[in-house]
From TrEMBL, chain A:
EC number: 1.17.1.4
Keyword vocabulary terms for this entry: FAD, Flavoprotein, Oxidoreductase
Protein name: Xanthine dehydrogenase YagS FAD-binding subunit
Top enzyme class: oxidoreductase
Any GO molecular function: FAD binding
Automatic annotation (TrEMBL), chain B:
Enzyme superclass (EC): oxidoreductase
Example GO molecular function: metal ion binding
Keyword Oxidoreductase: yes
The protein's name in its UniProt record: Xanthine dehydrogenase YagT iron-sulfur-binding subunit
EC numbers for this chain: 1.2.99.2
Gene3D superfamilies: 3.10.20.30, [2Fe-2S]-binding domain
UniProt key word Aminoacyl-tRNA synthetase: no
Alphabetized SUPFAM superfamilies for the sequence: 2Fe-2S ferredoxin-like, CO dehydrogenase ISP C-domain like
Keywords, alphabetical: 2Fe-2S, Iron, Iron-sulfur, Metal-binding, Oxidoreductase
2Fe-2S ferredoxin-type domain sequence ranges: 47-123
Amino acid sequence: MNDFHYAKASTAKEAADLMNDQPGAVYLAGATTLLDLMKANLAAPPLLIDINTLPFKGIEQTKDGLRIGTMERMSTVGENPLVVQEFPAVSQSLLLAASAQLRNMASIGGNLLQRTRCGYFRDAAFPCNKRQPGSGCPALTGDNHNMAILGTSERCITTSYPGDLAVALLAFDAVLILQNQKGKQRQVPINEFYLLPGDTPHRENVLEAGELIVAVLIPTATHAQHSTYLKVRERTSYAYALASAAVGLDVQNGIIRSARVALGGVGAQPWRSPAAEKVLTGAPANRATFQDAASAALQNAKPRSENAFKIELAQNTLVRALETVANA
Amino acid sequence: MASEWSPGSSSRRTFIKQTTGLAGLTLAPMNQAEPSAPGPTLVQGATELSLRINGRVYSLRAEPRTTLLDALREYLHLTGTKKGCDHGQCGACTVHVDGERITSCLTLAIMQQGKQITTIEGLAKGDQLHPMQEAFLKHDGFQCGYCTPGQIMSAVACIREGHATSDDQCREWMSGNICRCGAYPNILAAIREVASSQ
């Protein structure tokens, strides 16, 4: 790790002022991702601004949903009774992520900003268009067994987005509240927050320099109350997803009134599937419908030499998740 | 175990620590050296830090980049906490902060001032082992022993959290602690025995 400076901000303004004074400074919350990257020589910020005492906390019921402060820890949010009751898929996505120790440390704001686990990105000896724009993407001709099959580009085929929470939030139309250095807030739907690699793989989201994610809003809905998160991994626990599905269904008299589908482990970013939702909506809640939806969700997948298995795996994951919710 | 860091103790390990140098380490009673929250003070280079560990306040002089794990091992010579991967993947460095288990390799010592830190050295009461330590001995819950302090710290927290009520639940909630020797069945037996006795 580089020899950085450290400052503890007690207000958002203090944090913003520190950020203004030091180009390249970064915010420090749970520290789990940041220190991991710094130890691997993938980040060397000159100043860490500790924001752990900032008041972006609390899990509150609002008029139309839940408001969760982004300084809350993954473990706290995952086991919160309101989250468990209203958004079971969100709770499960958190408790199936990382380990108990890391969940006690990591803030959900930081969780949403975790970087790719692509082996080429994480080894500073390799070129990488995410780390150094224009340097190349060795994954194009290299090991690709866990690379994304949806949303990639010829500049970056990257390992699928590694997080779980973002997948569940994407399924249930969450909105992020961002606060800039002047204290001004804006709302960004999570489906507009993440950027696909395209020609600019180093830009992963719309967060501006110095901007903080201060809260997550999730709207209450019947399809969110009847939801689940299924995660398939190379081992039973404590691993990133090979494929995952966050799904929610509102079924009445055997007919699906509304459906939500998002996939993890397959997209360059968390992957919502409007095509699958279209197949599901108005259709009978049975296996044939679910299989049609799974085909639709993966129809544009572009596998490489070693990751075609992800198509069938993701389809089966999605079908099983939908069956779990329909039969609950 | 407690005698290892008690002032005035002349145990073998204390002697080794003293002869290898205690530069920078001071022991202070609880009511002194309260950590302060200085607001937006820019900390550059080595500074005085104060950590509350196993019921005592320790002072050390370290850079902001010093992880809690390195502070424990390299500065305070509390070497019960182990460094395995140093990336939060193995759990060997698990300690409790304000009662919750964390991996001490992925947090900075400077961030943990003012918190109650418990390490494996703080579990036993004098010569009386913690029930989880007894259970690991009874069930032979280790081979090489390197992961054991982390396993035990994690296990104590796992039960306190209410996540050791079945074998499957216990396995899931202990998955952040890797045992290269593969002592998992015995570790599980030890945890379940302690859990069922409470």
